[in-house]
Amino acid sequence: MDTSFKRALTELAAGEFLRIHDGCGRVIAVFQGLVWITQQGDTRDVLVGKGQAFTLDRQGLSIVQALEKTKLVVFAADAQQEAPATARTAPRMSSFELHRLARRQRAKAMAAAARRIAAAAKLLFGRLRDARMRLVAVRQPRPW
Q1: Which CATH number fits domain 10-91: 3.10.450.50, 3.40.50.720, 2.60.120.10, 3.30.420.40?
Q2: CB atoms near residue 49 (< 10 Å)
Q3: Contact status, residue 74 vs residue 19, Cβ threshold 8 Å
Q4: Cβ contacts of residue 78 below 8 Å, gap of 6+?
């Protein structure tokens, strides 16, 4: 599990959590799954699901726990202020681009799942065909 802020996409298995220290102003955008967010000094707990985002509004420790397999991005709300000098020349990602990226990742995941289902069906029907051929071969009368 890589939970550094250097990677764009963080993947958490169900039950894993991410600790964010002094994350006021950071945004947690969920692409897949469901997370439970709690912040130090805040009595409310927040559930953030696929396609939703939440901005941390407190300093101190914030905990993001995955309630199911989750893919999320944690980024600064104003990336230009906290970005290193070398990264300031890169354009900020608009919400449209962020949604387009999410759609592409979802399409890739669905295509991969469809390929796995097709391969499993091909294997299953191949085994059924082989079993049927063996059954037919046993039932045929011998010409003697």
Answers
A1: 2.60.120.10
A2: 13
A3: no
A4: 25
- pLDDT, tens digit, 9 for 90 and up, residues 20-53: 999 898 999 999 999 999 999 888 888 999 989 9
What residue segments make up the domains of the chain, in order of their start? Answer: 10-91, 93-144
Q: How far is residue 37's CA from residue 27's CA, in Å, rounded to a whole number? A: 12
| pLDDT tens readout for residues 122-139 | 999 888 888 887 777 666
Residue 41 three-state SS: coil
Beta strands, E only, 10-115? 10-12, 17-21, 26-32, 34-39, 45-49, 53-55, 61-66, 70-76
